[in-house]
Each structure stands twice: as structure tokens, then as C-alpha cells.
Specification:
The chain is an alpha+beta fold. About 25% of the residues lie in helices and about 25% in strands. Strands 2-1-5-3-4 form a five-stranded mixed sheet. A hairpin with a 2-residue loop joins strand 3 and strand 4. The longest helix has 12 residues. It starts with a helix and ends in a 12-residue tail after the last helix. InterPro entries: MUB, Ubiquitin-like_dom, Ubiquitin-like_domsf, UBL3-like, UBL3-like_ubiquitin_dom. It is a lipid-anchor. Keywords: Cell membrane, Lipoprotein, Membrane, Methylation, Palmitate, Prenylation. It is found in: Cell membrane.
Length: about 120
């Protein structure tokens, strides 16, 4: 009986309940993810669940930043690796803040894509 309870507790600890807080204060989730889930996969989940009525939704994983316990999470890390012992209570819901980087404006794209010209200033004495 005790080994069954231990296995149930271990499987619960391998799962995390996460909700994603958008900049307007609304939430996506909560949803349960395995602790081995990558941050990139979490971002894909945010993109897939993004409310259709909201403007300027993210299109790619690169458009999304997830912040948990004041830290920007790296795509190659797992949810378990990003856990904060101070902020993430076992069995509780972890809130991650979502920041969407807007795509560059057309004018900015042109400036970025234009080749740089080398300019020389000559001073004649």
C-alpha cells in the first residue's frame, strides 16, 4: 500500500500545473505538463491556445518569452529545470508571464536588410 502511495506521489511530482498570464491580465490554462516538457514546447502550447480575439498574437516560438520567478526561460530547458524552490509549491499552480515580441515594422525591416555602406571621412590639413 505504501509503495503505491509513493508511486502516486512521484508521478504527481513529475507533473506541473501551469497557467500563462498574458499582458492584459487574462490567463491561458491552467494545464498540466510533465516536468520533462521543454520551454519551447510550452511556448508552442501558448501559441496554439492563444485567444483568437486578441490582436498581435505570436506566430513562432521566437515571438514568445516566458518569465517565471523573475527569470526569462530558455527554450532548451525543461519545466523541471526551471522550477523555483521559493515560488513553485508542490501541487500548486505555477504562473508564467507571457511577453510577445511584436514583429519588426516594414520600415525597420528595410533598415535591417539594407547593406551597410562604409563611409570614410578624410581630413586634409
Amino acid at each position: 500500500m505504501e509503495s503505491k502511495r509513493f508511486l502516486e506521489m512521484a508521478s504527481v511530482q513529475d507533473q506541473m500545473e501551469v497557467k500563462f498570464r498574458l499582458t492584459d491580465g487574462s490567463d491561458i490554462g491552467p494545464k498540466t505538463f510533465p516536468a520533462a516538457t521543454s520551454v519551447a514546447t510550452l511556448k508552442e502550447s501558448v501559441i496554439a491556445q492563444w485567444p483568437k480575439e486578441k490582436e498581435n498574437g505570436p506566430r513562432t516560438v521566437k515571438d514568445v518569452k516566458l518569465i517565471s520567478a523573475g527569470k526569462i526561460l530558455e527554450n532548451n530547458k525543461t519545466l523541471g529545470e526551471c522550477q523555483s524552490p521559493l515560488c513553485d509549491v508542490p501541487g500548486g499552480v505555477t504562473t508564467m508571464h507571457v511577453v510577445v515580441q511584436p514583429p519588426p515594422l516594414e520600415k525597420e525591416k528595410k533598415i535591417i536588410n539594407e547593406p551597410k555602406q562604409n563611409k570614410c571621412v578624410c581630413v586634409i590639413l
